[in-house]
């Protein structure tokens, strides 16, 4: 098997080398200045209206800009907009735009031409998300939030207005999402259905060539309005097998890879998440908080009224039975933070384990809660079915054994990923492994998961609590950040007390880069930003 993988890797290396040489001949770019990373899940679209999964998100982020951006600490920064103001009733947002932003050159503007970005491009881009003919998965960001009539306006070429039905506190951070990338109307009109493969943006890189499954090549946009990127280009390969991609990284053919895999994590990392000494000069490890909460969810509408899951003390016992420190150390190689608070993950201002202490590992307390709930005779407990896809078999096996140690019988139900999501949506599962990744850096994007008026998704647990819902609605209208933070804390405390989920861990990024790469910065949204690379990509 390993010989086969090495042979596959060698063939792929030759193919990438050939691809690289052809690009160099066409562009004059030297091999040392092209940043190469692998994307195991192939890119399906470069249309920002479909920037949902990471495979599309990263590439879209290289190509487009939004009104606002975020720094590595998740603070708002001007990007296309230079400044903004909010009306007294907080329903009209006005954005002053830069005048020096050129779109990538494209035939859609005429022969080898371009033009400057203006406010009507923002109107078009945002309105397109709401167009039912597009079927954008990002339509939810404006649906039922913006005004029904003329929600987007361009009073002047450098002035864009966004009108809301009522104040929505997370709006500015929502506008940093890749869905809100700004595109020209001419590009969609010219390429029509093929716009997904012929992007026209404004960011520091533009599409050079896309050779299907062989790879995708971006080149520097020399008319970029910001500091010019150091890299002359970006090459994205699509090696599905992570083991093969790992071998490519080890032999220096790939500059960067993201995430860990059980097949090679033990070779690289100590159990505390640090890089092993023998690799410290061969590669760099970048770690940081990632806004993702991993959990086990319960659909209380699914289980019968007399089922133990309907008893709050039983759900609390399940939480106390999990050794999260051990889980992180042995299953995650030290990458992650035990979820000893609520659902808001580490990395957001609302995360406060001192104010909202959650569940530590306390099997004695777990057994006491089972006794108090009337289950001192564990033989009367029904078997709890825990559903997951096969990628998390080690995690759900660990959890099931922990529950069995306090006398709760568990069976594992392995389901294909697509089927698992469909069953979570339909509500046919009683207990399931889940994760929630931030769409934008605001606590609301996590707390909306339990808002009682939300369907599934995001409310897969069908959780309903009147006090929680009132706090959520108040927080969406609250303009004072400190008051809003207090509401978020109260909502998280309700989740801890009611325990509609098992809080497992708050995720961390794990980026590996070659020694010659400099200027990478991890961020809590796990976006690969390459405009800021410094120095030379010299091998």
Describe this structure as you would to a colleague:
By secondary structure, the chain is of the alpha+beta class. Among the domains are: 65-190, Dipeptide-binding Protein, domain 1; 290-508, Dipeptide-binding Protein, Domain 3 (Dipeptide-binding Protein, domain 3). The protein is built from 15 helices and 17 strands. It has helices spanning 2-27, 54-63, 119-130, 171-174, 185-191, 242-250, 265-268, 312-320, 324-331, 363-372, 393-405, 417-426, 444-447, 466-477, 481-498; strands at 34-38, 68-70, 76-78, 81-86, 92-97, 152-156, 159-163, 205-210, 216-220, 233-237, 256-258, 284-298, 337-338, 384-388, 410-414, 431-437, 501-513. The strands form 5 sheets. Strands 11, 12, 13, 16 and 17 form a 5-stranded antiparallel beta sheet that branches. The chain is globular, with a radius of gyration of 25 Å. The model is unreliable at 1-31 (pLDDT under 50).
């Amino acid at each position: 098997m390993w010989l086969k993988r090495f042979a596959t890797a060698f063939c792929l290396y030759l193919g990438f080398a050939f691809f690289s040489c052809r690009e160099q001949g066409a562009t004059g770019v030297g091999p040392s200045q092209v940043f190469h990373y692998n994307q195991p899940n192939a890119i399906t679209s470069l249309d920002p209206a479909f920037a949902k999964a990471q495979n599309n998100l990263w590439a879209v982020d290289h190509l487009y800009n939004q009104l606002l951006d975020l720094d590595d600490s998740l603070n708002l920064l001007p990007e296309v907009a230079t400044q903004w103001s909010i009306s007294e009733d907080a329903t009209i947002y006005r954005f002053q735009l830069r005048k020096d932003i050129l779109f990538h050159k494209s035939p859609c503007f005429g022969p080898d031409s371009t033009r400057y970005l203006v406010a009507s491009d923002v109107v078009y881009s945002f309105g397109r998300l709401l167009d039912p003919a597009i079927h954008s998965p990002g339509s939810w960001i404006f649906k039922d939030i913006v005004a029904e009539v003329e929600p987007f306006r361009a009073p002047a070429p450098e002035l864009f207005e966004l009108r809301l039905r009522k104040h929505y506190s997370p709006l500015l951070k929502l506008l940093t999402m890749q869905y809100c990338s700004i595109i020209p109307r001419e590009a969609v009109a010219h390429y029509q259905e093929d716009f997904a493969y012929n992007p026209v943006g404004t960011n520091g890189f533009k599409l050079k060539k896309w050779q299907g499954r062989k790879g995708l090549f971006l080149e520097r946009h020399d008319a970029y309005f910001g500091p010019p990127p150091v890299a002359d280009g970006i090459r994205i390969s699509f090696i599905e097998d992570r083991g093969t991609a790992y071998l490519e990284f080890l032999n220096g053919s790939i500059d960067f890879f993201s995430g860990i895999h059980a097949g090679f994590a033990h070779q690289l990392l100590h159990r505390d998440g640090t890089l092993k000494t023998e690799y410290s000069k061969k590669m760099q490890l970048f770690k940081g908080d990632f806004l993702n909460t991993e959990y086990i969810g319960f659909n209380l509408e699914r289980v019968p009224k007399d089922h133990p899951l309907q008893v709050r003390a039983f759900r609390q016992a399940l939480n106390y039975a999990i050794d999260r420190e051990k889980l992180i150390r042995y299953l995650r190689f030290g990458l992650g933070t035990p979820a000893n608070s609520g659902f808001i993950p580490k990395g957001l201002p609302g995360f406060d384990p001192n104010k909202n202490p959650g569940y530590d590992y306390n099997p004695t307390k777990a057994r006491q809660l089972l006794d108090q709930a009337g289950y001192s005779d564990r033989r009367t407990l029904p078997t709890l079915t825990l559903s997951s896809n096969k990628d998390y078999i080690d995690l759900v096996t660990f959890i099931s054994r922990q529950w069995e140690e306090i006398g709760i019988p568990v069976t594992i139900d392995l389901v294909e990923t697509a089927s698992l999501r469909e069953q979570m949506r339909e509500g046919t599962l009683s207990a399931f492994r889940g994760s929630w990744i931030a769409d934008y850096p605001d606590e609301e994007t996590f707390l909306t998961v339990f808002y009682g008026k939300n369907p599934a998704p995001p409310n897969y647990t069908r959780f309903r609590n009147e006090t929680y819902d009132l706090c959520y609605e108040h927080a969406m209208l609250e303009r004072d950040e400190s008051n809003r933070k207090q509401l978020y804390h109260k909502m998280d405390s309700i989740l801890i007390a009611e325990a509609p989920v098992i809080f497992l861990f708050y995720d961390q990024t794990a980026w590996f880069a070659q020694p010659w790469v400099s200027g990478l910065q991890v961020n809590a949204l796990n976006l690969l930003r390459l405009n800021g690379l410094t120095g030379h990509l010299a091998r």
